[in-house]
Amino acid sequence: MTQVLIWGRSREMLAGDPFPGSPEEVDTLDTLCESLDGKGATLVLAEADRIEAERDEVQAWLDNGAASQVVLVAVADRENGDAVLEALPFVDDVIAPPVSPNRLMRKLGQAHQALTNRREKRQLEIAVERKSKELDTLNKIGVDLSAERDINKLLERILTKSREITGADAGSLYLVEREKVNGDVRAERLRFKLAQNDSVPVPFEESTFPLDDSSIAGHAARQNQPIRVDDVYDMPSDSPFRASQAFDEKSGYRTKSMLVVPMRDHQNEVIGIVQLINKKRDPAALLRPVSMVDEEVIPFINVDEQLAGSLASQAAVAFLNAKLLQDIQNLFESFVKAAAYAIEQRDVSTAGHSERVAILTVGLAQRVDAIRTGPFADKRLSPDQMRELEYAALLHDFGKVAVQERVLLKEKKLLRSQLNIIQHRFAYIAKSLEAEYLRRRLDALTSGQSSSAELAALEAAYQTRRAELDRILEIVLKSNEPTVVSDEANLRALRDLPSRPTPDWEAEEEISLDDWVRGPFLSSIEVEALSIRRGSLSDEERGEIENHVEETYHFLSRIPWTGDFRRIPEIAYAHHEKLNGTGYPRGLTAPDIRVESRMMTISDIYDALVAQDRVYKPAVSPERALDILTEDMTAGKLDETLLSIFIEARIWDDPEFKKLIRWKRRR
Ligand SMILES: [Fe+2]
Ligand SMILES: [Fe+2]
């Protein structure tokens, strides 16, 4: 019922008394407000002059909410009506005095209608506002969820947000596991993945149970419908499901109201279930002691169902995306590991090298990431960059697949086949010399004319040639060892040996064994191979091995790495570069070598030195390896800060690294 208030003097505004008892009169806006307090819808008839006198205050008062309770009608002379409306656009109407009871009644009716309309409009506005807030919240949650790639963190977040948005004290999350055979579902189970509870600790353990109608979650999944229960202890007797009270009995909790919503994928298939428990009047309240449940817990409502349903759909998309990303990640990782395995199958002597270099490099990178002082104080590596570095390290030597096996596996200066030929040749020559000597001795004895001095001379000559043969073979075997620098005496002895010119390898086949007996016993190619001053490789072979870096780069560049891994080819490409430009293949200098590659270089050299299994050079102790690294650093080849972090943090103490090294030793 709309009332009337007069702001001014009623006898100047009204014609007669329209009601039994005069309407209440007020003098100022303040007294008007006081008088309105506690009243409902009101028609205020106000002298235009009074409104004018407090114009700004009146407008603010209406804007701040009074308009939903009050219809303000200015009373002014007819000739001033338009001017008043123009000056006071916020008033609802202007009426000329004196106002007859009939006009007042009509005005009251209009005011009542106006206020009803305003109230409805306001309610609509509030509803729209609430909806848009909900949408906004859902959108924010959606964006938030889609940014999370870690599946476990994502599931935690889905449950937390679902509880937040519905005011639930506790909740659980289940994932559907389907075993499909030829597209048909064979078996379905629910995996209990997560539980949260604000009021009591939850001793959670992941488990699975059959997806059937006996549980609320199972029923919701099978029906693909949300379920709301006001009190799970008081369910209709014909309900197909029962709520387990085992948790309540163990923890002293009391599960009462429940809302279960399915998480559906784009094909409307249920992939999970969000179960929300005990909606609270005050979301911040704790349900402790258990008696608080009756006071605080209320049933979930329609809006909760809609909100949780929308969130669950977004959550399903985010979950499937994260899972897809993880599957791709796993696929990538398997591919990288398979590639690393392939390299090491070609050369079992370096098995584990790629993996160990990856462990050392990532270990060093983690230290660098944690350091807050020095030249790398600002260097940070995101988890993706760490993985990028790990992959680059695992694949850094992949190009070795393109190196000929006889070069890759070359243990000594001569190829194994070359040494075999030489050894057989020398055995043949020895037998031929012996046969020749025995034949001559037999001739001499048979002729009966040879003196014992002649026979002795024959034998001495034979022995000299045999000794010469043995000496040369000894030089060959000694020179064949891949010592860091061949000793000078050996080199000189080799150089002094006469050798048979062999323009190419094939030509050697044409020399008959008998030709070799007269000497020289070695070909020029053999002498050249034995004269390698460092290691076991000729310049040409070394070039072929060094070419593995180019091959690695070409191989890695063919892979369409995603944004996060795009630098893998570049990082691996520089693993043999040295800061002073003495590295290969491009001879880059410090400004052009990334920190990631510098870390890999240190790790690569360390592992190559300490690995027990390199065929072409013996392993050195970790201390000696660090000395060699330090010498390289002093020579300007390696990064000083990175090397000191490597040494101080004893990166090689990583248990995984040690395990791989020990594993190699047992083989
Ligand atoms: Fe390499
Ligand atoms: Fe390497």
Give a structural overview.
The chain is an alpha/beta fold and 667 residues long. The protein has four domains: 3-123, Rossmann fold, CATH 3.40.50; 148-324, Beta-Lactamase (2-Layer Sandwich); 347-404 and 545-666, Hypothetical protein af1432; 416-536, no CATH class. Helices cover 54% and strands 12% of the residues. The strands form three sheets. Strands 6, 7, 8, 9, 10, 11 and 12 form a seven-stranded antiparallel β-sheet that branches. A five-stranded parallel β-sheet has the order 2-1-3-4-5, sandwiched between helices. Strand 4 (70-75), helix 5 and strand 5 (93-95) form a beta-alpha-beta unit. Helix 12 (353-370) crosses helix 24 and helix 16 packs across helix 17 (488-496). The termini are far apart. 30% of the residues are buried. Residues 663-667 have low confidence and may be disordered. The site of one fe (ii) ion has 5 residues, from helix 12.
**What is the makeup of the main sheet?**
7 strands, antiparallel
Task: State the CATH class of the largest domain.
Answer: Mainly Alpha
Tally of helical segments: 27
Q: How much beta, percentage-wise?
A: 5-15%
In CATH, the topology of the largest domain is named: Hypothetical protein af1432
Task: Sum up the structure in keywords.
667 residues; alpha/beta; Beta-Lactamase; Hypothetical protein af1432; 4 domains; 7-stranded antiparallel β-sheet; 5-stranded parallel β-sheet; 14 strands; 54% helix; disordered C terminus
SSE order and pairing:
Blueprint: E1 3-7, H1 10-13, E2 24-26, H2 29-36, E3 42-47, H3 48-53, H4 55-63, E4 70-75, H5 81-87, E5 93-95, H6 101-147, H7 151-166, E6 168-181, E7 184-197, E8 207-210, H8 216-223, E9 227-229, H9 246-251, E10 258-264, E11 270-280, H10 292-296, E12 297-298, H11 302-346, H12 353-370, H13 383-395, H14 405-408, H15 416-447, H16 452-480, H17 488-496, E13 499-500, H18 505-509, H19 513-517, E14 522-523, H20 524-530, H21 539-546, H22 548-557, H23 568-573, H24 595-610, H25 622-634, H26 640-648, H27 655-666
Helix pairs in contact: 6-11, 7-11, 12-13, 12-24, 12-27, 15-16, 16-17, 24-25
The structure holds fe (ii) ion (2 copies).
